[in-house]
Specification:
alpha/beta; binds zinc ion; two-stranded antiparallel sheet; single chain; seven-stranded parallel β-sheet; globular; 7 helices
């Protein structure tokens, strides 16, 4: 395997995972990874079911720092966070992120205009196209008012939860939106991630789709992290062989890792 860092991982510090961080680390060591970055959730005002996505940052840092020390010399443990962006949360998120020395911050769209696309009602009463457009539009709204993140998470994530999956989705069908988003992210000096989780939902493509990754490179995008979005340790680095091929065929020679919010570029052939 030539991608040796998983930069999108959840544990019991996320409302939707019960995994022990140590299991994730051990799985990563077994796989021969050189680093893992935990990115547990912080989604303010999540009131769509009874899960809670508020991160207990104090316990999180205490636990992760201990593990970082314990496994020093075996694997590098980095402490990140995945924040759910909505325009009205900009100030709260900014304060939250600045309160602790995260190595890496993913900014994601989980909630679209106060609706959660995870639930079927987001798609009800309209075409898939309309549902996808609203999602992309909301990313542009987020980018207008918020920039305290390093990469934008799983850019076309909404497709995962659509009843028809990606049947009505392609880069070319939403080119105008995706190009505008990618250009804006590059102009902001930020990056994107390529997220392999869709494979486990039975989808053909990662988030975002390979055509969007290629377009990002064409537009001058360089910062790209790789994440499994695993909520259970068995999915750590899952699909990374396929991701490596996509990155190479999109014109990337490097993938990106972060420490202290600073990017480093690692050869895909290493
Ligand atoms: Zn996410
Ligand atoms: Zn995630």
């Amino acid at each position: 395997m030539s991608i040796l860092s998983d930069f999108h991982l959840h544990t019991r510090f996320s409302g939707d995972s019960t995994e022990e961080p140590e299991n994730v680390i051990n799985r990563a060591i077994d796989l021969g990874l050189s680093s893992v970055c935990f990115t547990d959730h912080q989604d303010f005002d999540y009131d769509f079911d009874d899960l809670c996505f508020d991160l207990d940052a104090e316990s999180y840092f205490a636990c992760m720092r201990e593990l970082k020390e314990k496994y020093r010399g075996q694997i590098k443990v980095l402490i990140g966070v995945e924040t759910g962006i909505e325009p009205y949360l900009a100030q709260r998120l900014n304060t939250f992120v600045n309160e602790n020395p995260y190595d890496f911050v993913i900014g994601s769209s989980h909630i679209v205009h106060r609706q959660d696309p995870y639930f079927p009602r987001y798609f009800q009463g309209r075409t898939d196209k309309e549902a996808f457009e609203e999602y992309f539009q909301s990313i542009l709204e987020n980018l207008k008012v918020y920039d305290n993140f390093d990469v934008y998470g799983h850019l076309d994530y909404v497709v995962r939860y659509c009843k028809n999956k990606d049947k009505n989705y392609s880069y070319s069908a939403f080119k105008d939106y995706i190009d505008e988003i990618l250009k804006k992210i590059i102009a902001m000096g930020k990056g994107i991630e390529i997220n392999s989780a869709p494979y486990k939902y039975g989808l053909e493509n990662p988030n975002p789709v390979p055509e969007a990754v290629k377009r990002y490179r064409e537009l001058g995008g360089e910062i790209i992290t790789v994440g499994s979005d695993a909520h259970q340790c068995r999915y750590v680095a899952s699909g990374f062989d396929r991701i490596c091929e996509i990155l190479k065929s999109s014109g990337f020679k490097y993938y990106t890792v972060f420490e202290n919010r600073k990017p480093t570029f690692v050869s895909l052939d290493k």
